[in-house]
Specification:
The structure is a homodimer. The first copy, chain A, is an alpha+beta fold. Chain A has 7 helices and 11 strands. The first copy, chain A, folds into 2 domains: about 60 residues, Winged helix-like DNA-binding domain superfamily/Winged helix DNA-binding domain (Arc Repressor Mutant, subunit A); about 160 residues, Chorismate lyase-like (Chorismate lyase, 3-Layer(aba) Sandwich). The first copy, chain A, has a 6-stranded antiparallel β-sheet with strand order 5-6-7-10-9-8. The first copy, chain A, has a 3-stranded antiparallel β-sheet with strand order 1-3-2. Chain A binds a DNA duplex through helix 3.
Chain lengths: ~240, ~240
DNA sequence: CAGTGGTCTAGACCACGTG
DNA sequence: ACGTGGTCTAGACCACTGC
């Protein structure tokens, strides 16, 4: 099969692209079922097996989830799911640690060098920076700075309140679906400001997490730096 | 289809199990091609599509790799591949850091509490503990203690030399194929001994990595603790 | 019960890497 | 040219879920 532009692309990848477009545009909303594999097959004039391959690709990309006997649903960043997928901090008994977000501050500024590189922005581009403290059982636990391209989230800076789980907001208000992230970790000594906020001694060892989050088609949409004081806690990474 | 014990299992999972058994037993050696999908289909009396599903499951489990036009090969832990899969430390330019292993020391001892939990060992079981220092450009970089069940690797303690890439040894000499690992990370302050070995100041922030490695069917086969001084370097984790 | 995803067949042809 | 994995069809039936 030859596509309109002359390049040879498997049919299932063409179908996948069409499905992604409908999800990106909001025609198929988060948490809602997409058409059945048979319906997709009929609409695009392919067999069920081919429609299934297209859906399987989206499952692998964390864009949809299959529920046997029910249907296939557009991924939804609920608070719970977002923690399960993107929060990697666990306690001594290997349970995921729940945090609350206590204080916030949001400003628009020119992107710095790290932000321009991680978010793939041109010089002079603006970012919205959100600074916040996350607490565990009421005590400061993580000091976090979240940066997003201002152009991608119009009006976000003017909001009076921001939810703890930002990806839900990105998705529901801006149609930006975070599907993947990379985190770069280092151990650093707490400087005075961080030590004061986290209520630890200056020089205490902190885990510094620098995250870059990616949306559909690999587009970087957020970077954040988190400083954590991990007393009786750890970060969990799964290899392959 | 009903299997001999009466449970209903998809045929492709039955085929997958048979393939795993041949790899585990060494009948199909690391780095060697397994039979083609058509040959597998013929042998087990299933269609190519079903044989393909069985192979796809093994690909997802990191047991085999497909090479288009060539065949499907049993995964091999070569030095290069092992670094690419299990080494997560990168330099400031985001290149993977190569390390050399400079000094080693191996002892057999009773498993401690952490080892018993991570390796799923009974009280009184013995482990082989390997202590070693890994260097970067000649300077100490990672201080590492590797623990494996002594019963699983007979004769390993008596070896005069050990390679830098242990998983290659586990696989080639003992038929133990590491397919997955979990790493638990914390930031700690260097104690005197670690500081001296790594040539940093006592109290310097170190990244502590506690790894558990799993073989086929989820069996834990190794745990290791690594202390890294990450000057101009970071640990990379990929989320989903 | 109807409708969904999950498994399975027996073919066919294509794209790729090697000889 | 050959054999491999990769794509694709047009069916079929099974297993699960909710009504």
């Amino acid at each position: 099969m030859t596509s309109p532009d002359g390049s040879r692309r498997p049919r299932y990848l063409h179908v996948r692209g069409q499905l992604v477009e409908r999800i990106r545009s909001g025609a198929w909303a988060p948490g809602q079922p997409i058409p059945s594999e048979f319906d997709i097959a009929r609409e695009f004039g392919v067999s069920q097996g081919t429609a299934r391959m297209a859906v399987t690709a989206l499952v692998a990309e964390n864009v949809v989830v299959r529920r046997q006997g029910l249907g296939t649903y557009v991924c939804e960043h609920t608070q719970e799911e977002e923690y399960a997928r993107f929060s990697s901090v666990f306690d001594g008994e290997r349970r995921r640690i729940a945090t609350d977000t206590q204080s916030r501050q949001a400003v628009v500024a020119g992107a710095n060098r790290t932000e321009r590189r991680d978010l793939n922005l041109a010089a002079g581009a603006k970012v919205l920076r959100i600074r916040r403290v996350r607490t565990r059982d009421g005590t400061p636990f993580i000091l976090e700075t979240v940066s997003v391209p201002a152009a991608l989230f119009p009006g976000l800076a003017q909001r009076e309140t921001l939810p703890a789980t930002l990806y839900e907001l990105y998705q529901k208000s801006y149609g930006v679906l975070v599907v993947r992230a990379e985190e770069r970790l280092t151990a650093i000594a707490a400087d005075r400001a961080a030590a004061k906020t986290l209520r630890v001694a200056a020089g205490a060892p902190l885990l510094r997490i620098e995250r870059t989050a990616f949306a559909l088609e690999g587009r970087p949409v957020e970077c954040r730096v988190s400083l954590c004081y991990l007393a009786d806690a750890h970060y969990l990474a799964r290899l392959k």
